[in-house]
Structure formats: structure tokens, C-alpha cells
Amino acid sequence: MDMSADSGQQPKYYTPDPSYRVHSWMGDYSWTYNEFVKDPDKFWDHIAQKLHWFSPYDKVSEWNYPYAKWFVNGKTNITYNCLDRHVLGDRRNKVALIWKGEYPEEERVFTYRQLYREVQRFANGLKKLGVVKGDRVCIYMPVIPEQVIAMLACTRIGAIHSVVFGGYGAAALNQRIVGAGAKIVITADMAIRRGKAIPLKHIIEEAVINAPTVEKIIILRREQRTPVELHSEMEIDFYEAMADVSSDCPAEVMDAEDPLFILYTSGTTGAPKGIVHTCGGYMVGVYYTTKYIFDIKEHDVYWCTADPGWITGHSYVVYGPLSVGATVLIAENTPDYPDPGTWWKIVEEYGVNILYTAPTAIRMFMKLGEEWPNKYNLSSLRVLGSVGEPLNPEAFEWFYHVIGKDKCPIVDTWWQTETGMHMVTTVLGEPMRPGFVGKSVPGIVADVVDKDGNSVEPGKSGFLVIKKPWPSMMRTIWNNDERYRKYWETIPGCYQVGDLAIRGEDGYIMVIGRSDDLIIVSGHNIGTAEVESALVSHKAVAEAAVIGKPDPLKGNTIKAFVTLRVGHTPSEKLKNELIYHVRITLGPIAMPSEIEFVDSLPKTRSGKIVRRVLKAKEMGMDPGDISTLDE
Ligand code: PRX
């Protein structure tokens, strides 16, 4: 693919006000990047030294391809840096967390001291239930303060949390509980969405069937008038779990390389992958990028709209912002409910200074019209952020002009569950180029290469890769190290990201999309294999193949091609039933928008379904080489 902007027209940039260039604790982009290049270990050491270590590391990094260790033999605890450090310092009474519920006036506020106390009490509650360092705990909750408290309580005592997004269905949840071998599941009786209670308990009940490692389920009962009944053999109330315990739970001393958490992400084939992040490197990576990329100031209100159940929430709702001592806003809401002004109302009411969101939300607001944001005073906004999928130039322009009023820089951040932290972006103060993410974050060496690992010429597409290890890189995939190694073994010497990209003459990188079978729908990673196996688990389906179709709003939508078993005939009713079936098993985010019944699917002679042929046909494009296909 050629890049028109570099082959003829002058690229378009927006240059932010020079005041944005000044980073109080590091220099501007070139200076900082050069510091990194001069001595990478010294660079990371400088950052790590800003955090608390119970005992110092002997060495900054150790690279034994494809395995990395960072801050070797250092001892720390991320919650010490997110809580104790601030409470013992001068942020004791600073607001740490603001939760905004869906109903007007529904809000909860925690100072650092209050959050510290709640986390320690819940951590002691977990200990009382027998949870010890290294145990896995699954958290399946809506966006409420207890979700954050549960995460921090786990890492406080060295338990490895595996947070599962609250919108997943029972089968997806079961797979993740079993995969991680969770001893405890922490959940809530319901989520609130569009003014309605969405019950969660029956999903959990179904998900723990055939999950033999689960010993207890901790349930936060939000409905107090008629609280759901608990079955005492297995189930325990969230607040009862933390009753009668001390509010003093010193942070467990963790080795820098001990696992911190597992987070499942969709894979191109088979089961989702349990990405493993570790205590030291992850902490340094998210601390650094939160501070440097967002430049959060002491009195800022920072709002990242992601659910803490995704990596964006782990890194940039919970661990990054709390490690820098920020005031973090979270909201349990839907952007267009009760009306499309709801987010802008929150920005006005709380004086949000930094707003970090996803292109899919921006495109939805674009469609709904400027009149909604224009009703509110958005002058508090200073920095805007985007993540999850390409921020197309039209969405960039809209975000920049309508929300940022031509003054707020946009940091479009490219990264992944696997990378733990921001990898490619346009650092504040640097000229922004719509459609392009930007350059490697200082500390990272990203490149666009061919399949042999050679850099491609500017303007030509290639594979986006990372050429050097970094502290917050995943260390392995839970119970599947072989799959981990593949990331580093496919392209010689590089970590393969799985995205296609183009680098312009100016060094700016444009991410085009996935090079594999993952589909990014509204910024969420959906594995074709997962949707296909959900479809095939329906009695009428013989085989299924799923593709992503470009969509102006969601980035992509899912289309499924299905062959039926003998005795079943295509009908509209069956289509709806299949869509519903995926919704129940995997959750609404993985629902196909379209189903087409076909007589057969294109396959290789060895029987592998060739989705690219279906996609080409769907898009009216040339399917390429089909000589290896079966008749
Ligand atoms: O394809 C890229 C896309 O999201 C993928 C990673 O998904 P996940 O692990 O779920 O993490 C999402 C949040 C970090 C990437 O491989 N992606 C993420 N950010 C961007 C992006 N694509 C383009 N531009 C981005 N800023």
C-alpha cells in the first residue's frame, strides 16, 4: 500500500502550544529519546528509581532471547507505590478515586487514605479465605470502586488477579477461570446499564460449573432491598469478607519478576491467551508512560473511559495513574444514555483535564452531532487520548476541533495487552499528524519491517515490530510458553505485534490494522476462532467461518458464514437464534452483525478454512492465490 500523503501532497500537522513541550521531570521527545539510546539501562534505572523498592535490584535488565528479566532481584509491591507512598507522603487526603454511577447524583469518592484502608481490609479478607501469594483470583465485576479495590487487594498480597470484562458471557468466563485455575472468583450481583439492572449472578453460577479449582465466590450485593440469596457453601458477601479484619495489611514483598496478573486476550487460533505481566517491569512501564505521555499534573482530574477489565483499564485506570498519585475518575455508564451529552456533562461537572478514550466512541459522538458536546463547558480539558484501534483522520479532526477546541493535543497511543504500556505515540508538544500514531515512545524501538526483519522503505507497508525488550513486556503466556515464543520467533530478532503499518518520510507510523485473524470491533480484540467455536456449539451448525468487515462506526463488524447440519434449514429465525447464542456464550461484544448460510466453506487441502477468500469475496476484491484450495 502506498501512502498518498507521502507520495505527492504535503503531510498535514497540528502543532500544539509550546507550553505543552515542557515536561517537568524529563525533557522533550528528542532529548528523552536520545538519553534512552545513549544508555538504555541507565534510562530505565532513572525512572525505576522514582519508585519504592523494598530492596534494590542488582541489574536493570537481562536479555536471554526471547526471555527478559527486568530489575533483577529487586523487591517491591505495586500497591506500595500506588497507595502507601502517597499516604505516607503528602497525598493522604487527596482524592484518589471518583466513581460516577449512571443515576444522577450517584457518586462515590475515595481519598488515598480511604482507598488504602479499603484495599488492606479486603486484602485481609482474602487472606482469611486462605488466599496466599501466587494464588489466582478471578475478578468479574462492573465498573465500580470495588472492582479496583479487589484488584489492588490481590496484588497487595501477591495473589495473581485475572480480571474478566464484566460483559463476557458464561462460556467465555468459564474458559478464563479454568485457564487461570482461579481459587476465588470476585463478582457482583449486577451491573447497571441504560437504567436497567443486568443480573450477573446466574452467569457466575454457570461459569463455575466444571471449574474445580474455585473454592469461594465473593459477591458484592448492590441490591440491598432484596439482596440475592447466597449459598453459604461457596458464596460469601463482599463486605462480610472484609468484616472483622484489621485494616492493616502490609504489602507482600514481591520479587520484580513474580507474576503480577494474568489478563486474557483473544488469540488468532484456539483458546484466549493468558498474558502474564510481572511486578517490577510492569510497574515501571505504566508509571513512566502515565507520567510522561499524559503529563498528569498534581491537581488534574484524569478520566480514562476504559473498563478496568481491559488492559487499558489495568494500566491507565488503576496501576499507572495511582502510581503517579493522580485523581482518577471512573464511570459506570453508556456514552449515549440517558442522552448523548452524558460524557460531556461529566467533563464539565468534574472539571476533567485529561480524557483518554477510544476511536469508536469518538465516531459515535461525531454521528450524534456537535450540539451535544457544545451544550457543556469543556474548557477544563487539557490533553486528549485515544487507544484501541486506528484513529482515522476524520475522527482526529472532530476530536481536536469539537472536543479539544483546537487547543488540546491528542495522544493517539498504540500498544497492546502484551506490551503492557504505550509503545508508539506522539509525545505532548510534538506536531501531530492525523491518521498517524506517531513515533516510538522513548525506551521503545518500534519499526516497520518485511518478513525477514528488514526495515521497509518509507511509504510502504510492512509488519509493525518492536526490536528491543522493554520492562512491561509480557513474560509468558499462562501455561503456554510455546505460544509466547512465537511472538519473538516469527520475524528474526523482533517481537511481532500482528499489525500492519506504514512509516512516513517523517518517521511517523500509521497503523493500518491486523495482519492476522483478529478482528477489532469497537476497539475490542475478538478472535475469529472464539466466535466460530461458539457458533459451532449450536446444534444446527456444522461449520462456521468469521471475518471482520470494515465499519465506519465500530472499525469492524463481524460477519459469519455458516454451514448447517443435515435436518436444519436456513431461516431468519435461525439467524437470530445463532446471534443470540453467541451473545449468551461469549457476550454482546462478540456478536456477529451478519450471518450468511452457505453450502460449503473455502478450505485448504489439509482442511483449514481460508477466511481471506471469504473476506475478498465479501469486499469485492481479488482473493489472491487460490491454487492451494480444495475443490
Ligand atoms: O491492532 C492494534 C489495536 O489493538 C491491538 C491490541 O489490542 P488489545 O491487546 O486489546 O489492547 C488494546 C488497548 C491497548 C493492537 O494490536 N490498537 C491498539 N491501539 C491502537 C491500535 N490500532 C491503531 N491505533 C492505536 N492507537
TrEMBL record:
GO cellular component, one term: cytosol
GO process annotations (BP): acetyl-CoA biosynthetic process from acetate; carbon fixation by 3-hydroxypropionate cycle
Domain AMP-binding enzyme C-terminal, first and last residues per copy: 530-608
Domain AMP-dependent synthetase/ligase, chain residue ranges per copy: 91-478
Domain (Acetyl-coenzyme A synthetase N-terminal) ranges: 29-82
EC code: 6.2.1.1
UniProt GO MF annotations: 3-hydroxypropionyl-CoA synthetase activity; acetate-CoA ligase activity; AMP binding; ATP binding
Signal peptide range: none
Record carries keyword ATP-binding: yes
Sorted UniProt keywords: ATP-binding, Ligase, Nucleotide-binding
InterPro entries noted in UniProt: Ac_CoA_lig, ACAS_N, AMP-bd_C, AMP-bd_C_sf, AMP-binding_CS, AMP-dep_synth/lig_dom, ANL_N_sf
Pfam families: ACAS_N, AMP-binding, AMP-binding_C
Similarity comment: Belongs to the ATP-dependent AMP-binding enzyme family.
PANTHER family reported in the protein's UniProt record: ACETYL-COENZYME A SYNTHETASE, ACETYL-COENZYME A SYNTHETASE 1
Protein name as it appears in the record: Acetate--CoA ligase
Organism: Methanoregula boonei (strain DSM 21154 / JCM 14090 / 6A8)
